Amino acid sequence: MEPLLRVEDLRVELPTRRGLRPAVDGLSFDVGEGEIVGIAGESGSGKTMTAMTLLGLLPHGARTSGSARFDGRDLLTLGRRQLRDLRGRQIAMVSQDPSTALHPILPVGTQVTEHMRHHLGLSKSAARAEAVDLLATVRIPDPERALGAYPGQFSGGMRQRIAIAVALAARPRLLLADEPTTALDVTVQAGILRLLDRLRRERGLAVLVITHDLGVMSAVADRVAVMYAGRLAESGPRAQVLAAPRHPYTRGLLDALPHPEAADDPARVALRPIPGSPPSLGDVPAGCPFHPRCAFAVPACSTDRPEPLPVAAGHLLACPPDPLPRDDAAPVAEGAPA
Amino acid sequence: MSSADNALPVPVGRPRTRAPRRDLWRFLAKRLVAGAVLCVGITLVSFVLTQLVPGDPAAANLGNRAVEDPAAVAAFRAQYGLDKPLPVQYGVYLGKLVRGDLGESQQSHRSVKADLAEYIPATFELALFAIVLSLVVGVTLGIVAAVFRDRWPDQVLRVVSLAGVSMPTFWIALLAFFVFFYKLGWLPGGGRLGPALTPPPRTTGMFTVDAALAGQWGVLGSALEHLVLPGLVLATYTVGMLLRFTRASMLEILGNDYVRAARAKGLPERVVVVRHVLRPALISIITVAGLAFGSLLSGTVLVETIYSWPGLGQYAYTSAKNLDLPAIMGVSVVVAAVYIAINLLVDLLYGVIDPRIRLS
Predict the structure, then answer these.
(1) Helix, strand, coil share (%) of chain B residues, nearest 5
(2) Residues of A numbered 158-217 whose beta carbons fall under 8 angstroms of chain B's beta carbons: which are they?
(3) How far apart are CA A60 and CA A81, in angstroms?
(4) How far apart are CA B294 and CA B14, in angstroms?
(5) B12 and A154: CB-CB below 8 Å?
(6) Structural domains of chain B sorted by starting position, each given as residue range(s) with its CATH number in brackets
(7) CB contact residues (below 8 A), chain A span 228-267, against chain B
(8) How far apart, in whole angstroms, are the C-alpha atoms of residue B317 and residue B329?
(9) For burial by CB atoms within 10 Å, which of A3, A173, B153, B280 has the most?
(10) What ipTM does this complex have?
(11) What's the predicted TM-score (pTM) here?
């Protein structure tokens, strides 16, 4: 049976001053019911545009190809009206910063119930009752009272919980979480991630988590796709991708995670950045887009576009040299620019 | 909530759903005291200014013959207290003002209060008509311009708003007068009522309201008809201004994450625009509308003159021409009070629109 969402060879081109430029290039992934899939990558790698494509909220003049089948229907070919009926109702979004994503001057109650009433046709009182339940589900204290309050009266973590309640209000089947914890403290992050995990278990919610933070991925994702410059670098089950990365870029992202314990251990490096910066839209190098920053680049990398190929069950890798040692205990490669 | 979930972040402060009433009263009291002080300050400034103007009220108000007669001039000065030292004159004025006495006009020989009571409602009626019209038309067109940004409706409206704010009011007034009254004869060319009609029994001084209260529908129709031309002319500028401000602040808000979030909820575009975009945009719209209403209320000399509208603008103009000091001072105080009241109203509206302002 086909999974709830199957994205195949998705290509998104955005209008720039120099014409259309690909922001997402040949991306494929699946998200099944009750599954959490993570898309990782630095800013500018096309993660957010992927989410916007699924919602049908790309900027004017953007062009898409490939397919994104949700429940059997291709989101890329649906009409505006059909997409609007799908948004919020079937596919909902939680965005990065709850302090800007919640409307500052509308009461929480309005924000939780307005699309519930629109999509589900609930009466005002029924919607209110459901909103109270929902706020209780995301563990907002005193939900009755919270309905009449404004986002500014809550802390960042509470706001993100409210934003999740808003996203869940019309009982969607797929939740797109774009950097859901980036704006939050580490302790609060953990609470939000546990909440997502609980919702997937209790409601069978499919979640697509978009983040640059592999730490977040390792906490909740069943499967992970790592993107670089709009292209898939590596994807597969979490344990395989994060514990034994095969792509130098994935390795680099993992090394870029801070290790607080490194302060006491001179053998470890606290944080190793990836040298250089990701290419801007329309400036993507030929061949493997990562080759200018890759310590393992061979001459072919600058000419041949690597295609994602299976290297293990469910594990795709777009790096033909496949230079990394199979054992994660092996010494970490020095991140010297090529 | 379950007490077992101890990893739960604690909310900062309990959400308050209603701002305490007491705060509102304290705010109002503070603003009213400040307003009163401001009014007194304005009387001082206008008093000093009227003294600086070269010219003699006696010469302006007495006839040519009487001005030659020192006795008549002395009598005039004594009658209006102009023979006393300036600080004393000002003190006397303030003392009367506190008791609600604005003095006696040197031209009409009536109390300034009675004069103002006659002219203010006429101006208020006209200003209210113009501002309501401008808000409806200007804000609606501004929304259209923002929603169709850089497409043809926006391009057309850009020309409309530019024309509205840049065409001189007196020119539009004359043009409209010529076309709609003189050439087409669709609308009356001046005054507040048809010549055959008598004003309705006075309650508010606004003919439309009074006529409606008295059930005199013919009078009401005529009063409305007479409002249309001067009202439209006054509204051209404010429509252009409100259109631009509405468009600009809507566009600013449209770029926010919360608008994208509203779209992501699958709400109809109409709901997104009105509830999520227009509401926060209203903050800057009412600021501009308040200022525009203030300037309409302080009387618009040109339009009132062209359409023979017996309002505050005409009164201020004739008083200034005749150096009618009590009348000038009276107008100044009224205009100051109007601006203070409008600012207060706008500030209160901010609180209605934006809970963050209400709660802080």
Answers:
(1) 75, 0, 25
(2) 158, 163, 166, 170, 185, 187-188, 190-191, 194
(3) 16
(4) 40
(5) yes
(6) 113-321 (1.10.3720.10)
(7) none
(8) 12
(9) B280
(10) 0.82
(11) 0.79
Q: How far is CA A155 from CA A152, A163, B12, in A?
A: 8, 12, 6
- Centre a 10 Å sphere on the Cβ of residue A168 and count the other Cβ atoms it contains: 20
Is the predicted pLDDT of residue A262 greater than 60, yes or no?
A: no
pLDDT in tens, B144-184: 999 999 899 999 999 999 988 888 888 888 888 888 888 89
- pLDDT > 60? residue B5: no
Coil, helix or strand at residue A267: coil
**Which is it for strands A174-178 and A91-94: parallel, antiparallel or unpaired?**
parallel
Which residues of B, range 321-360, sit inside 8 Å of A by Cβ? 353-356, 359
The predicted model gives B207-234 an average pLDDT of 90
Q: Which amino acid is at B228?
A: V
- Three-state DSSP at B71 gives helix
Spatial CA neighbour of A40 closest among A196, A173, A179: A179
Which has the minimum average pLDDT: B77-86, B222-231, B291-300? B77-86
Instruction: Encode pLDDT of A142-171 as tens digits.
Output: 999 999 999 989 988 889 889 999 999 999
Distance of alpha carbon A98 from the chain centroid: 16
Q: Strand runs (DSSP E) across B234-350, as ranges?
A: none
CA distance B46 to B36: 15
Nearest-neighbour CA in chain A from B358: distance (Å): 11
**Record: contact B256-A100, CB cut-off 8 A:** yes
What's at B356, amino acid-wise? R
Token code pair at residue B159: 């020309």
Please give the distance of CA A2 from its chain centroid, rounded to a whole number.
21
State how far the Cα of A99 lies from the Cα of B258, in Å rounded to an integer.
Answer: 9
Which of B132, B141, B130, B129 has the alpha carbon at shortest distance from B243? B141
What's the count of helices (H) and strands (E) in chain A, helices before strands?
11, 12
- Residue pair A124/A154 in contact (Cβ under 8 Å)? The answer is no
Helices (H), A88-231: 98-101, 108-120, 124-137, 143-147, 156-168, 186-203, 214-220
